[in-house]
Design goal:
Length: 457
């Protein structure tokens, strides 16, 4: 979406709300604890328990990455904090309060898995296994612990907490004045500061002792964990697990996008991917993400779809995508959606009447929050493929079948591709970035697409 006044704050708050709503519930945590106890008794996780644990881990990583990205967008708005200047203004306090709230969520959520893994070797070993379905490499959980202790830079985090404690009323008042009560409510719900420096220090020492105990059976390995880096870094300096080459240019260039626009029609579906494995970790598969092309302003007007809104952005010439990302189900421009490395375009085989019906169904969800829980059984928060599912399911002959993953019914991007193409509901019309950075169309696109993942068409 084209950046507009206030949109950075608005989107940050929406990301925060969705992340907080996606935290594990007490019931879910109780289930994970029971699973770990049963697995410890029998000596292994059964498939259902395995899926449940993986889902919780992947959800945490998804929340962590989304909040990290949100904090990075806010970082320039409270730069004075980094230099030790305590005289932040009202707008700076608002940005700081949102970012600090996100950092607290990262810490608190990590503690769920930390405590679970610390108590039972079998949990740690399970999460350290490579899991290609989720893009997880071997020892990913150990690396995550390392980041929560060293790269997370707890010294800087505690600077932020000290500043929050010293300026709590000012920060809370600035958030209230800006009508950011949802952030205030989350900060209050976190009951800050419930965890003291001593709590985190004891947790770190337990981690070190546990890690050393696990490593005592191996020789020649060095202890890789440092206590806290006393660098005075600010809370935004968080590392994304397993991410490499951050900031490297995407293979889909502005020239590629311009060449694509004239070939699209309202209702086309984009399935996309980033080369970076971390961006796919909580959306498993080679093809993890989907978005819906809603047409140009002229095309929407011709279909009677000219009055659309997501609560923040109304229809204009720049808007041509409806897409669910961490900041919610929002109207966006194609340049934002295609800031990726590869994509394919599928076109539904529908009449104009049915196409308008599907787009109206999709647009009725605009403005909703993102669903980190990936629960297709509810419609108050949606993930990317759920927007597509709720738009097309039941329209014409389209009848998607959800599959069970981690005890929840859902439709992954690759499930969508398989069902859409094998049932002749959609045609793959374009492919870019698979094999080579060139456009493929028709049968060539279909054949190359089929070879990129476990296709059944």
């Amino acid at each position: 979406m084209t950046t507009k006044s206030g949109s950075i704050i608005d989107n940050a708050v929406r990301t925060l709300q969705a992340s907080y709503a996606g935290l594990p519930t007490e019931t879910e945590m109780a289930s994970l604890i029971t699973d770990s106890q049963n697995a410890e008794i029998r000596g292994y996780y059964d498939p259902i328990e395995d899926e449940r644990l993986r889902e919780a881990y992947a959800r945490y990583l998804g929340i962590r990455v989304s909040i990290w990205q949100m904090i990075q967008t806010l970082k320039p708005r409270f730069e004075k904090f980094k230099s030790g200047n305590a005289s932040l203004g009202e707008a700076e306090h608002q940005a700081f309060g949102i970012a600090f709230c996100g950092a607290e969520i990262i810490v608190r959520t990590g503690e769920y898995l930390i405590d679970l893994a610390r108590k039972r070797d079998i949990v740690w070993k399970k999460l350290d296994e490579a899991e290609l379905r989720y893009g997880l490499k071997r020892k990913s959980f150990t690396r995550l612990y390392r980041q929560l202790t060293s790269a997370f830079k707890m010294h800087g985090f505690y600077q932020a907490r000290d500043y929050f404690d010293a300026n709590r009323s000012k920060i809370m008042d600035s958030l209230e004045k800006a009508d950011l009560k949802s952030v205030v409510e989350i900060l209050k719900a976190l009951n800050l500061p419930a965890a003291s420096r001593g709590d985190h220090l004891r947790r770190y020492r337990r981690f070190v002792n546990f890690s050393l105990r696990r490593r005592s059976h191996s020789t020649g390995r060095k202890m890789m964990f440092m206590l806290f880096e006393a660098t005075g870094s600010d809370i935004a300096e968080l590392k994304i697990p397993l991410v490499k080459n951050i900031g490297a240019p995407k293979r889909v260039t502005p020239k590629v996008i311009e060449g694509l626009k004239s070939q699209l029609l309202p209702g086309d579906v984009f399935i996309t991917r980033h080369d970076d494995a971390m961006s796919n970790v909580f959306l498993p598969g080679f093809w993890p993400h989907g978005a819906l092309y809603i047409g140009t302003a002229k095309e929407r007007a011709a279909m009677g779809l000219d009055i659309i809104s997501d609560g923040m952005v109304k229809s204009d010439a720049a808007i041509n995508i409806l897409e669910a990302k961490k900041d919610g189900v929002l109207l966006r421009n194609i340049e934002e959606t295609l800031a990726v490395d590869a994509f394919t375009v599928l076109r539904p085989r529908l009449t104009e009447v049915d196409m308008k019906k599907a787009l109206n169904k999709a647009l009725s969800h605009a403005g909703k929050l993102y669903d980190f829980v990936f629960d297709f059984g509810t419609s108050d928060r949606l993930v990317c493929t759920e927007v597509i599912y709720r738009a097309y399911h039941g329209v014409g002959s389209i009848d998607f079948e959800l599959s069970t993953k981690a005890g929840r019914k859902c439709l992954s991007a690759e499930d969508f591709l398989n069902q859409a193409i094998s049932n002749n509901w959609f045609d793959p019309i374009l492919l870019y970035g698979v094999g080579a950075d060139v456009f493929l169309s028709g049968d060539d696109a279909k054949q190359e697409l089929a070879g990129s993942f476990e296709a059944d068409f």
